[in-house]
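Step 1: inspect the first sequence and its tokens.
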Amino acid sequence: MGLLRGVRRVIQPALLGLLLAACAAPAPTPAPTANIDATGILLIEVGDEVQTGPLTRRFANAFSDAMAMAEANGDDLGYPWVDQATGELVLSVVTPRGRELVEEASVTVPHRIRDVAHGAAELQRIQDEVIALGQRGVTDSHLISATLPDLRDNRALIVISAMSVPLLEYLAETYPVDAIAVQVDPDRGSLTGP
């Protein structure tokens, strides 16, 4: 009988712990594994969802309003993003003024605020400059096929048709590495051809 009590003392707390763990709120979905190049640039796999996917009308309206606010206040706000895993509109703030703008906005969907290092204006400037690198004679700039916002990571996403160490080194020397991401997609081709 003493052995049975000893086993109960061990098993009952373990079962209670398992029951509590099973009833707890689900753990948040982890962020995609960061794949950082030797230059410090984030590499995005083809197919990674860095844009906002299909939205309900309510979320589409809230996202559109948040993007318009980010574009109008690009030094204070970064890119918004809809986190499909949590069902939240993610609002990116760079400065205290950006936080005030977000807190004063009438956001009608579940949302959260994240602090980011770069505003939408800076990220758009990087995208615009990168498209013109071929005119400056930057090595392998002909491999650039597109630039677009990486909403998930609040970066300028540069799509290239083939990996180029000299191009990544140039990008890392010219722009803050935490402001850019690169995706190698051979199916995209290039803007100017070989």
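Step 2: inspect the second sequence and its tokens, then contrast the two.
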Amino acid sequence: MAIQTFTIDPNAASLEDQNIPVRNESGGPFAEGDLVYVSGWDAPNSEFLVDLADAPTNGAHLSQFVMRSALATAASGFAYKSHTLTGEDTSGAAVGDPVYLSDSVPGGYTLVTPSFAQQVVGRVSVVNVSGEIEFLLLSDSDTGFVRSNPGTGEFPVSGVSRDVNGDLEVSYDDVAIP
């Protein structure tokens, strides 16, 4: 057993392209940068219902997507797996520091390690009072394993990170899941 690493082809479809059609029936509007989870299905509109993610002690509603733009109540739009949020105060942080789902503000994030469910939802990419946060949301099902061709199997993921070029790098155990 050894840990292997591969870099996802930067010319392949990126996580920026990964979105789902959503509807906000939560009772309140969403803002750009709000972290959301799928809470149901809206059959008449053929869209996923989403609500603000939260990090209670049991981690029941961890973030699955991020909003790239505001979405009013009773409105339809898209939720994404990645987003760069600008104009955020990242002073006091370092480039590459983790950004967590907040355990006190629904749909929010924090640069301070929360005391409950510690879901990393992104990284600090620019440090200053009008800095940037790069969200990259990989839910448990996204990061639980790497699937290869059917003859080889599925392999447990041990880490997902960005390399020095900004490409997504995946580390995995080379022993297939039985």
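Step 3: confirm your contrast with the notes below.
The chain has one helix and 14 strands. Helices lie at 140-143.
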